[in-house]
Amino acid sequence: MIPIEYFLVLAAALFLVGLAIVITKKNAIVVLMGVELMLNAANINLVSFAYFDPILMQGHFLALFVMVVAAAEAAVGLAIIIKVYQYFKTSDLDKITELKG
Amino acid sequence: MEIINESSYFFLLLFLVPLLPAAYLLLPNAKRSLAPVLGGIASFTYVLLASVLLVQLRSDASIIMQGAWFSVENAFSFNWSVEFSYLSVVMLALVAVVAFMVQLFSIVYMRNDTHFPRFLSYIVFFTFFMSLLVASDQLFLLFMSWELVGWMSFLLIGFWFDKSKASIAAKKAFLINRVSDIFLVLGLMIIYYQFETFSIREIASLMSEQFFVDGMWLVEHSTHTNQLPVTWFTLASVMIVIAAMGKSAQIPFAIWLPDAMEGPTPASALIHAATMVVAGIYLLLRLSFMLSFEASLLAVAIGSITAFFAGYSAIYQTDIKKVLAYSTLSQLGLMFAAVGAGAYDSAFYHLYAHAFFKAALFLIAAATIAKAKQSFQAANKKQYDPQNMFHLGGMRKQSPFLAVAFIVSGLALCGFPLTSGFISKDLILLDLSAWSLESSEAGGGLIPLLLLGFIWGTVFLTPFYMMRAYWLTFEGTASVSSSLENKNDNRWGLQKLAVAFLVGMSLFYVLSWNPLGGTTHLEEGLSNYFSTAVWQDLSWQNSILAFKGAFAVYVGVFSVLLVIGALYLSYRRTKSEASAGMEHLLSKKLAFNFWGLNQALSLLFIVPGLVMIKLFHFIESKFLLPLARWVRSTASAGAKANQIPEEQLVVPLVDLLGIIMITFSLVVAWIDRVLVDGVTHFAARSVRTAGGMARSLQAGAVQTHILWAAFILLGVLLYVLVLVV
User: Fold this and answer.
1) Predicted ipTM beyond 0.90
2) Mind listing the pLDDT tens digit for each residue in B251-271?
3) Where are the beta strands (DSSP E) in B214-304?
């Protein structure tokens, strides 16, 4: 049996990669991809804990829910990005500073 | 004897409450319309607190509150302690009442000033600091409030800080007071070394453990005995007297008080006449048990000299406020002399009586000046100075009320019968006469008699300058015929109330029901407070008492005759003076300028500094630089004469000097660049960095927000981890 720490370290690394992408990338679509990575890191956590709890399988189900929500979120997010792009004529997040001030 | 009540600390906090509205009034955007109400209520609170204390107090008890204050490295711990004894409560009530009256007066008088709320606030703060000074039992606390009232005096003298004369006068008062305060610090050091406590009450109780044996000053504590040569005892008490001389403006420190008249007149009434300047005398009264024979002698000498010469200067003043200022100096001198002669109770009676009538006189002067200013402006006579008595004149017709008030309080100042001044001045005269005759007999020779002459001279001078001031200001022909008479200001009533109250407080019943003296209201309480002076032995006391019993009536009658005579002489002289105008005064410049004391002091202390600077400059330009040139030329000449190439002798010398200079300047430059500039740059950069970080939050960039969110989350997680694990 693989110790749970391995999964957790993997998930944390994946989460941090996602966070780094979200914080540093200019393109809104890439940022959205970072968000997906973070969600999947959470999924890995859920599944790996469920792996040690084979009877109720709560983790697996929650992971499935996350996937569904992530798919919906990606769809909505992409739609928003398209609208943002139409409005600002750019998808560079550094240039979208309407909240400034 | 004393009640120490821990639960009544709450009561002390009440003294802080009026500071809240006062602090609000200091704010730049404080509402002007609120200022009279807040200032008036704040001042009235002190009157209430003082009257509560006055009612609570039995004459033989004193309420003491104390607590830990601070400690230095656990070795020395200091308590604050506050004592409401009979003396301090009466003084507290005096301060509160006079301050409240001045506040009422200022509410009207200062209402058009740009900084009106600030003025009322200062008065409240001053009242608090003065109450602290009066009530504090701990010398360190007393010293602190001593400085704080000095600070308030500085602020109020320089209240119109855009007037250069006022700000210079404020600085002068502050700095001269610092000089005398150094002596207080030194005196306190000696006291602490010997008594190991700052509490006046504890020091007083340790006085019974104090002995003078074989030229040593011993103080026995429970575990050990502290000893110093007796000189240190003398030194400590002389230093306390010098500190009091500074605060109470005695010669040679006296020069700050006439200049302090640049401040607003109500402030002069409160601080530079009634309360703060008597703090020196109050300090001596509190520490009366510490006054050695030498210190007492110093006090009598300084006091009577100041009384006489300030009184003499008052005769030649043209500014009505200056007359009152010199008169204050003179009266303070009388009190000082009385303290020195061991007549502590008489000194306090005079302090008490003087506070009311002098505050009244100042407020009357303020109202007169304001009225004159109005009529001068109305008549468009800008060249007339409303404070100059030769330009005033005829004010009685404009305001009979002020004239009558001036007469009554002026007579109180002169010591005319039926006034409080008569009673207190009479007692002082009796005490000082007894002192001087006894010490002259005990080997003092002529000096005590000379000092007594000064004192009696002051009694003659006081009515003289008061009559002159009255005549020049209120009688005679008005220089400007006023058209403002019928323009009734409805707010004038508040001013009238304050003046009338203070004038009412300058009549005999304030001190005693008997208009000719006898036992005073304060006598019973104060007799528990003051013992006889340390240097008076039993036979001395008996002969003083015998003298007083025998001569009391003569002294009283003689002083009244002197007052009446002086009033008459002054009346005759002033009439001719008023018609002669100001010109004849020029011949009396010495007295007009207070005997050149200012110039003498600057000659003594400031000119030497300037001379030193000139001297150093002279040495450098006429001596050092030629020397350097001479060294260079002789060296090159010597090199020539000895056939040594010039490079071998002169150049290495010059080079060495150059290297030293360059190294030195490099070090200085490094210090300047790295340390001095570095600190500044670091400060500037860290502010800029912090600003940039804070600014990035508002830059509208989503990703920065996320970054911040991540950081904060991390922080929270770390915190939880540390807390839980």
Assistant:
1) no
2) 889 889 999 999 999 999 999
3) 216-220, 225-229
